[in-house]
Amino acid sequence: MKISVKKQTLETINSGFLIVNLFAGETKPGGGTGAVDKKLKGLISKNIKQLKFNGSKSGDFFIFDNPKNHTKKIMVISLGKQADLDFETIRQVAATSILEAKKHKVKTVATILHGAGIGNLDAKKCAQTMAEGFLLNNYSFNKYQKNQTANKNTIKEIIICQKNEEKISDIKKGINEGIIFAKGQNFARDLVNEPPEILYPKTLTEIAKQIAKDSSFIDIKIYTKKEIIQMNMGAFLAVDQGSAKDPYFIHLTYKPKEKPVKKIALVGKSITFDSGGLSLKPSDSMVTMKMDMAGGATILGIFSTLNILKPNMEIHGILPACENMPSGEAIKVDDIVKAGNGKTIEVVNTDAEGRMALADALVYAEKLKPDEIIDLATLTGAVIIALGNDIAALMTDNDKLNKKLTTASKLSGEKIWPLPLEKTYQEHIKSEVADIKNIGKKGAAGTISAGLFLKEFIKNTPWAHLDIAGPAWNETKHPLNQQIGGSGFGVRLLLEYILQK
């Protein structure tokens, strides 16, 4: 599906499906929508009146036939209240409109640039978010289905019409950036959706190697089990003990041509299947646990874009990859293990394994002396109780990093919400027999105590923890995610963070 911009007005273009917009309460639309209305001799205004269309909710729409050619359609979609307009609204509206266009089996769709006219938003960013909406909506994972063409998209091209030549260059840049962001996110979605017998630690390393091979700016180091033992990563190794498959520790490094303005490290939980270990999950809870490597998938999705985006910073991607399985060799409750920084951990629950793998990865990351460290993990069920399936928890005690990630969240539409690293809750992970234990009080601040556990493995580097357990997996369909399964959450969020000026 090609996305392009043309110096042409919407009312003069030949397309099977035209998309125009209006704000809530508009009865006589202006701008590009008004021009189309005038060309159609007031048909849009007449339909608004006849249908009593208010458009109070963004994404509300109606469709009618072009009276000169009934095979052609005009879609009028609401941007909601003008005061509430933001980039996420534009992203969602683009996704909703293209979903409807696909139902009409058209080949070419033409649309105006949502938000950059009367909405007064940045044209480049509007184009980026529209491209994201189009492509994220168009994603499907059907490689294991017999009929892979059942819902095949017939749309060949989406044209954004723009008569102002001065904006065309920015719109092109925005479209290109949106395509890159969406491809990176869809790459991560593919990884999360793969079944665990296909995607396990070894195959994850092969995917990472291919990303490095495809880029002249990315190097990779893969540590085997023998090397992991030599690096004293006792916490990470303990998680893998019950698996028949070897662990791998993946380190990707992106370096730009110019002197980098900063160095960051991204650490992703990469448990390719989580059974809970000997603290075995119930069967229903084990379903979808192929997604416990979603943090690592997000990092690989980001690295798949860097060769094109070429940010001027040094970026390290760190993935401790293993399975958490029960067997006669598995780690047991009451065992004590030692992490790479020498701290001992009492294992109270083998299903609190992700934080143990991350502990050694964070120690490793800090040795690289980055300016900032961010980790992503499907870490706790408690975060879903607190924030639901659409919002990730952010934990950091660094105000500057908090602000950067919050800004990136607003631009990307990937929602985060801060939770405190409350010092009084440190007692929750205090152990009587080791330095700390791997889980806190039952039913009490589980997400925060997990964040405090991770903080034990950071000395002085600015650090943020993102618990993405809720939004990493789509439980239901909505415009940006038409398929239940992996969401690729965090790719757009962290790319916005990386590209901040």
List keywords for this structure.
501 residues; alpha/beta; Leucine Aminopeptidase, subunit E, domain 1; Aminopeptidase; 2 domains; nine-stranded mixed beta sheet; six-stranded mixed beta sheet; 15 helices; elongated
CATH topology of the largest domain: Aminopeptidase
Gap between N and C termini, in Å? 31 Å
| Number of helices, where a helix is a run of at least 4 consecutive DSSP H or I residues | 15
Largest sheet report: 9 strands, mixed
- Counting DSSP E segments of at least 2 residues, the number of strands comes to 20
- In CATH, what is the homologous superfamily of the largest domain? Zn peptidases
- What proportion of the residues is helical, as a percent range? 25-40%
Unreliable spans are: none
Give the name of the CATH architecture of the largest domain. 3-Layer(aba) Sandwich
Structure description:
This protein is of the alpha/beta class. The protein has two domains: 2-163, Leucine Aminopeptidase, subunit E, domain 1, CATH 3.40.220; 186-499, Aminopeptidase. The chain is built from 15 helices and 20 strands. The protein has helices at 31-39, 43-51, 87-103, 123-137, 165-193, 201-213, 225-230, 234-240, 283-286, 294-309, 354-367, 382-387, 399-412, 446-455, 491-499; strands spanning 2-6, 17-22, 61-66, 69-78, 108-112, 157-161, 218-223, 248-254, 263-268, 270-274, 314-324, 336-338, 344-346, 372-377, 391-396, 415-418, 436-437, 463-467, 473-474, 485-486. The strands form four sheets. Strands 7, 8, 9, 10, 11, 14, 15, 16 and 18 form a nine-stranded mixed β-sheet that branches. It has a six-stranded mixed β-sheet with strand order 1-6-5-2-4-3, sandwiched between helices. Helix 3 crosses helix 4, helix 4 packs parallel to helix 5 and helix 5 packs antiparallel against helix 10 (294-309). The chain is elongated, with a radius of gyration of 24 Å. The mean pLDDT is 95.
